[in-house]
Specification:
heterodimer; A: mainly alpha; Cytochrome Bc1 Complex, Chain C; B: alpha+beta; 2 domains; 3-stranded antiparallel sheet; about 35% strand
Chain lengths: ~220, ~170
């Protein structure tokens, strides 16, 4: 049945070359844990992507109940994790995934560094990777405020003070982030929500695409 | 042993197990999120709550307007909602009608139009109803006014949900 649906589409749109191009390629021996068990270090990039996918999904579902408003934000989080079925699990996935993604990125970066995979001709991919690391940090920073509890609020107070400490543009940067020169409140929360849910994930998707296109074009770096 | 002696080849076995394990893991991810999303559909509603609205002693044969409020819980948001009922007593029967016009949802009033006394009148498109809520033919509404579920306890009228008469 599935095969016939596939054939029907393939006959009209010729999709086989498309997915072959993306998915059908050999895994070199030095990257295959079946040959050398130590090659499991090559899994960290994929695991990072896997967790990012979980973050996207669980985040999408969380916005079904969450409101970025100072009066209701805390109450809506309390409601979704306390009264909606599996709310604690879905929020937990997003919460723990946020930390785990940083761990995975760190391990992935270590592997790339110690195998020298960043060297010519792959310098650009390293740059894109570092940009994505910064975006993930930004996602962590903006997401932390959204539950609008004491911990969230004071973490953001400190974070914005760090932004303010930058010479010359510090005050501007802080106001740009918090939406108000003095108050960390209603406007800060909506701003952080917009950045967390639209701007940074959008940028992340673009850079992920660039990261993957480059690795397919250049192939995995050779053995040590 | 060559691969030909097996009904399931090594490649097939690997495909099955990997698909199974992968499917199990994907389900473990997707199921909590799906259940989370469809929760409003599966939540049992708090329908059946009755609210005290009026003393039976105050009711007359003429429909009177009674406002009543109750707490409405909407997720994390609780608010006080006010509803209106037109109630009259006919012998032992107590009838409580919803003031929402069955045409387009405006609010009807009893005896509000001098040309049509003793009827419910809707100001929006001139819809009219008899005292028992029956819509008058030739006016826009297509069904009678909705009727509240009514209950009398200790001389007090309790109202539930407004339900269609037909």
């Amino acid at each position: 049945m599935l095969q016939r649906v596939y054939d029907w589409v393939d006959e009209r749109l010729d999709i086989t070359p498309m997915w072959r191009d993306i998915a059908d390629h050999e895994v070199p021996e030095h990257v295959n844990p079946a040959h050398h068990f130590s090659a499991f270090v090559y899994c960290f990039g994929g695991l990072t992507f896997f967790i990012i996918v979980i973050q996207f999904l669980s985040g999408m579902f969380l916005t079904m109940y969450y409101v970025p408003d100072i009066v209701n934000a805390y109450e809506s989080v309390k409601y979704l994790q306390g009264e909606v079925a599996f709310g604690l699990i879905v929020r937990g996935m997003h919460h723990w995934g946020a930390s785990l993604v940083i761990v995975m990125v760190f391990l992935h970066t270590l592997r790339v560094f110690f195998t020298g995979a960043y060297k010519k001709p792959r310098e650009l991919n390293w740059v894109v990777g570092v940009l994505m690391f910064f975006i993930l940090l930004g996602l962590g920073f903006t997401g932390y405020l959204l539950p609008w509890d004491m911990k969230a609020y004071f973490a953001t107070v400190v974070g914005l003070q760090i932004a303010e400490s930058v010479p010359i543009v510090g005050t501007l940067a802080k106001t740009l982030l918090s939406g108000d020169p003095e108050i960390i409140g209603a406007q800060t929360l909506t701003r952080f929500f917009a950045i967390h849910v639209f701007f940074l994930p959008g940028a992340l998707l673009g850079l992920l695409a660039a990261h993957f296109i480059m690795i397919r074009r250049q192939g995995i770096a050779g053995p040590l | 042993m060559s691969e030909k002696n097996h009904n399931v080849s090594r490649r097939q076995f690997l495909t099955y197990t990997l698909t199974g394990v992968g499917g199990f893991m994907a389900a473990g991810m997707i199921l909590p999120m799906a259940r989370f999303a469809i929760d409003p559909v599966l939540k049992t509603s708090s329908a059946g709550d009755m609210n005290a609205v009026a003393e039976v002693a105050k009711l007359t044969n003429e429909p009177q307007r009674f406002d009543f409020s109750y707490e409405q819980k909407d997720g994390w948001y609780t608010s006080e909602v006010t509803e209106t009922a037109w109630i009259y007593q006919d012998g032992d029967n107590i009838t409580a009608l919803s003031p929402t016009c069955t045409h387009l949802g405006c609010t009807v009033n009893w005896n509000a139009n001098e040309e049509h006394p003793n009827q419910f009148f809707c100001p929006c498109h001139g819809g009219r109803f008899e005292k028992d809520g029956t819509n008058i033919p030739g006016t826009p509404p297509t069904e009678p006014l909705h009727k509240y579920v009514t209950e009398v306890r200790d001389g007090t009228v309790y109202l539930g949900k407004a339900e269609p008469q037909i």
